[in-house]
Design a protein that fits this description.
heterodimer, A: 291 residues, alpha/beta, eight-stranded parallel beta sheet, four-stranded antiparallel beta sheet, 14 strands, 35% helix, B: 271 residues, seven-stranded antiparallel beta sheet, seven-stranded mixed beta sheet, 6 helices, 16 strands, globular
Amino acid sequence: MSVTFCGIELAHPLINGSGTFDPIAAERVFGGELAERFPFAAFVSKTVTLDPRQGNPPPRLWELPGGLINSIGLPNKGLRRFLGEDLPRLAQLPVPVIVNVMGFSREEVAELVCALDERDEAAGIELNVSCPNVETGLVMGADPWELGALLNQVRPLTGKPLIVKLTPNATDVAAVALAAQEAGASALSLINTLRGMAFDPRSGQPWLGATTGGVSGPAVRAVALAQVHAVAQAVEIPIIGMGGVQRGEDALDLMRAGADLVAVGTESFRDPAAALRIAAELDQLLAKSAI
Amino acid sequence: MSAARTVAPFGRRLAPVTAREQHGAYVVLRCDDLEGPHPQAGQFYMLAAASRWGGGEGERPFLPRAFSVLRAHEDPAGGVELAFLIEDVGPGTNRLCELVPADGLLLLGPLGHGFEPPRGDRRALLVGGGVGIAPLAIWQDRLGADTPALLGFRDAPRAEAARLISGARIATDDGSVGHSGPVTDLLKRKLEFGGEGLEVYACGPPAMLEAVRLICAEHRSPAQLALESGMACGFGACFGCVVSTLEGYVRLCVDGPVLDASTLETVAVGH
């Protein structure tokens, strides 16, 4: 089941969605067995920003029928400490590491990309473009022109694979995807979470500390299939498909829709080893469909 | 603090339910963790029913639920027999309370960081509220049955769970059993009269823990608090369970659930 993705050799097509697995914390919990049975063929880091972030005030989670809303708010220690403390540890994982970054302006993204370009431990860079550009007010990944302008600025700064993580909260995701391809993106990943909200039944107030959050899990699977399908019709670059994958069948559906790799996210919360099971199920399904 | 932490097998596993006991308003669920290691007192497991997890009220539950381990015993046949204390308060606990022997329980754990032994020559005092008495039972098993315990409950049906802990003094909100009023009344009295040299171990609702924190601070008594927070994963992946400490947010699942009271500015009450 080995695959090549943007020149990176992977043992199988299942990776993690950014922000859904922390190998450094998991090593404390599961010890050496984590590395022995590491469930993903590549590891995508949680989003790294230039400055440290505490994240959103709790509560941060709300359970849904078939999924959850999270409003975590991208807590991270900031670029400098990520590069000094975390990246060397992530590099010891038995799989390639892709670093997810987010900036609040094109200059910030450029600084993040430049810093990672110098680090051999990063096999690729994924851009989280689900936040507004503080200079233009436009969500970078929701507007084709805005995303094109960002990539025109940062693409020349690195020879590493540059993956753009698309937000589903866009009017026309295929148009955004095409703009990313034209401006030199190496690959696309989708879908990020869908914006959602819940009310506290007792107080009548918004439940989440940040009012709204992102919906993930099987509840968004059909949306993911439609968006991956629409994007795959529009572009030629590789696609990482994700959204509610729980079984090999779900991963196969995303590949049918046009994904080259499939990411597991929320299902890893329910079972950290879920991706191992899904990879085995996918392997069987692919073997069957090849006959 | 050194790590009161047993490393968990990677991935969730199936453990057959061996017993379901009703203790007043609570259910004690026992299971055979065939491959599992022995947990530390204060550690927890993420639990889900192997079948019909989902399809309850509001089509939930979806995520597993976090439970401190109530008791753990070596099983002569291999593995560990684990017990959990459950109160039916929502779709997840409702489904777990339905389980009967031979049903399957999916579990991940042991997770988190448990209780540390008392500092120096201090003696332990256990303070529990409601379903939060669970980790105090296994801690008393380790420390000795003569370890004193103060337990608070809403009413008599809930106070039946006090039998799970040896020699406990009881308080109830409605006065039907023991002292009428919050368990922290008993704690206050204990610390005021002959409470020197104690280290307090507490678990219960946030308002109780905040009261315990304040009383212990006033009497300069060290305290270890087992907190609760909604969790999606239990192993540091989702960042959903953070609590505020003097050093910022920490993930309760990997840095707790037992936190030293001195690291907290307050125990957040409200959610």
